[in-house]
Amino acid sequence: MRVRSKAKQTREATQGPARATALAGSMAAPTAKKTSRNSVYVFAVALFLVVGGLFALGLWAVSEPVALIGGVAVGLVVASAIRIAPQWERVVILRLGRFSRIGGPGVYMVIPIVESVAARVDQRMITTPFSAEEALTADLVPLGIDAVLFWMVWDPKDACVEVEDYSSAVWWAAQTALRDAVGRINLAEVATRREQLDNEVKDILEEKTRTWGITVVSVEIRDIAVPSDLQDALSKEAQAERERNSRLLLAEVEKDISEMFVEAAAVYERNDKALQLRTMNLIYESVKEKGGLVIAPSAFGEAFNNIDSFLK
């Protein structure tokens, strides 16, 4: 069993999400332009300017400093109270530290000081690449496996309340589930049971993340890296298996042919005319292929004896 040092375990725990981000950036996958939240910020700025400007304009005749300060204060309060959320986003709102409601999409209200936004949860499909480096199979062979996880948040409340950082939790759970699934099968079964391995990892993850308000859509293994010292052995084993199959197939064909020859011999033994027809056919095929005069044994000439009586 492989034993890791405490320092290495600490380093992996701190670098887990960063490694996932780096792995996602290193994959040569086509990237599309991400959706923007600029409209949210534009709405907040516009609301601040409009409300604060109107309030300041109303008090401008009374006192200019009071109008400026009051306009800024009122603008900030209104901008922080009236907010909008994009179609794909849900907002978890707490009131005095307790869960109050889910806001969005569209316009939602937050009471300043009394209420606060705990989290903004994206409910679209999320793609998370992860890997299991040197995962041990049942026959103690270390493998490097890269996979992709497709998941989404269906309950923003549980995702915010039940787990501290649901993105990192999903990443770690996926890596652990992949190691557990690989540890149950042998090296020879990893490639042939890839789809079954995907489903097994998905089932393990669904059981873990169900209480977090997260659903796992699918798990897809991208690559399986076999140690270089075992690649030659596996290649020779595959070649030997193909050689064995070819020899078995050749033996079966020869067996079938020999059985047909035995049946033909039995027919020739029971009927002399059948043997004579076969002899004449062989002579015809020989003349057809080579052409001209063909020297044949005298036994072949007997096939033409009494041909008139044979044809009658």
Automatic annotation (TrEMBL):
KW Transmembrane helix (keyword) present: yes
Is Iron-sulfur set as a keyword in this record?
Answer: no
Family assignment? Belongs to the band 7/mec-2 family.
User: What keyword terms does UniProt attach to this protein?
Assistant: Membrane, Transmembrane, Transmembrane helix
Using the record's annotation, list all stretches that form the Band domain: 80-238
Region Disordered: start and end of each range? 1-21
Q: Which residues cross the membrane?
A: 40-60, 66-85
Gene3D superfamilies in alphabetical order: 6.10.250.2090, Band 7 domain
The species this protein belongs to is: Adlercreutzia wanghongyangiae
Q: What is this protein called?
A: Slipin family protein
